[in-house]
Design brief:
CATH superfamily of the largest domain: Type I PLP-dependent aspartate aminotransferase-like (Major domain)
Number of domains: 2
Bound molecules: pyridoxal-5'-phosphate
Distance between the termini: 35 Å
CATH topology of the largest domain: Aspartate Aminotransferase, domain 2
CATH architecture of the largest domain: 3-Layer(aba) Sandwich
Helix content: 25-40%
Number of helices: 10
Strand content: 15-25%
Length: 364
């Protein structure tokens, strides 16, 4: 058996030690005679899995005690509706940055419920820069400010300086961190709410994580579906109905793995090194290019194009044969995309660079 380096944007590669542990205990978890998948979510054994998972997540992200962590079905996309339904009343105004496809989807959904003021939007459908601060236009009565911390399709990421300028508005800040959660240390207390689908940097699909400051609970609209109301999850340890039990368990293994390798601080060093060497290689090459402004380049999703797009097919075929999978860019943006989440070892990035170097030399 060989495991390839999988650069898929999501569902994405998971850490090999996690997959091995899951395989080892697949048929018989902790001498219970059954798989975690086959266990009642109300059982003492499963509650132990669930509690450990949450405790480990709280530890790795240093989540303050006045935040609830909710585990919700429906992916990050369901929260595009959940956010306005839980935090606004009809007629309210909210602020949204539009920095790409995921922001646009969040705006479209929120617009069904509230007045959305677009703070700033980049050029075209796939902006390559976070708009300059001088162009930001906040609404004085906005209930919250929403941003997509990392636009997965283009690889466009908010960095510290812009985020500080957003926090300085003094409004509740909500961030979609689906594709960059836990990639580096962050100060959770600066956010009112962080949410993420699990299938990029956390675990298997089928689960979204919502980290919400307690004072934001209890304000949902009367008509909010029970299972979209965060209070339901907060009151029931996210078990009002049957949770995605196996996804929780596997996410728990990922959190434990992160803890063991030194936490988010340690993985951040590796992530930064991986991203830096890949961008440096692309920038130094005349064969490949990346169109994102250097300051906003994502640590997690590195997009690039070949000078001659007629070679795209050959590039994808060749990389696949070399054990480098899923490098095709999103159809909305074209070109290539290497998603290098926490589970991608540095050796995977080295192998990719080596392949890119050889491919360029052969086709220059
Ligand atoms: C993948 C992704 C989503 C959608 O996640 P689902 O879990 O499929 O709903 C939302 N936002 C961002 C930034 C993403 O990368």
């Amino acid at each position: 058996m060989t495991r390839a380096y999988n650069f898929s944007a999501g569902p994405a590669m998971l850490p090999e030690p996690v997959m091995r542990k899951a395989a080892d205990e697949f048929l018989d978890w902790n001498q219970t005679g059954m798989s975690v998948m086959e266990m009642s979510h109300r059982s003492k054994e499963y509650m132990q899995v669930a509690h450990q998972m949450e405790a480990d997540l709280r530890e790795v992200m240093e989540i303050p005690d006045n935040y609830k962590v909710l585990f919700i079905h429906g992916g990050a996309s369901l929260q595009f509706a959940g956010i306005p339904l839980n935090l606004t009343q009809p007629g309210d105004t909210v602020d949204y940055f539009n920095t790409g496809v995921w922001s646009t989807k969040a705006i479209k959904e929120a617009s069904r419920y509230v007045n959305v003021n677009v703070v700033a939007e980049g050029d075209g459908n796939n902006p390559t820069a976070i708009p300059a601060r001088s162009e930001w236009n906040f609404s004085p009565d906005a209930k919250y400010i929403h941003l997509c911390a990392n636009e997965t399709i283009t690889g466009l990421e908010f960095q510290e300086d812009d985020l500080e300028a957003v926090f300085a508005q003094g409004k509740p800040v909500i961030a979609d961190m689906s594709s960059n959660i836990m990639c580096r240390p962050i100060d959770v207390s600066k956010y009112a709410l962080i949410y993420a689908g699990a299938q990029k940097n956390i675990g298997p699909a089928g689960l979204a994580i919502v980290i919400v400051r307690e004072d934001l609970l209890g304000q949902a609209r009367e008509t909010t579906p029970t299972l979209l109301n965060w209070q339901t999850y907060a009151d029931n340890e996210s078990m009002f109905n049957t949770p995605a039990t196996f996804a929780w368990y596997l996410a728990g293994l990922v959190f434990a793995w992160l803890k063991e390798i030194g936490g988010v601080k340690e993985i951040a060093k590796i992530n930064q090194a991986k991203a830096r060497k890949l961008y440096e290689f692309i920038d130094a090459s005349e064969f490949y290019s990346n169109s994102i402004v250097p300051h906003n380049r994502s640590w997690m999703n590195v997009t690039f194009t070949l000078k001659n797009s007629e070679l795209d097919g050959q590039f994808l075929e060749g990389s696949k044969s070399a054990g480098l999978l899923s490098l095709k860019g999103h159809k909305a943006f074209g070109g290539m995309r290497a998603s290098i989440y926490n589970a991608m070892p540095e050796a995977g990035v080295d192998a990719l660079i080596e392949f890119m170097r050889e491919f360029a030399a052969k086709h220059a």
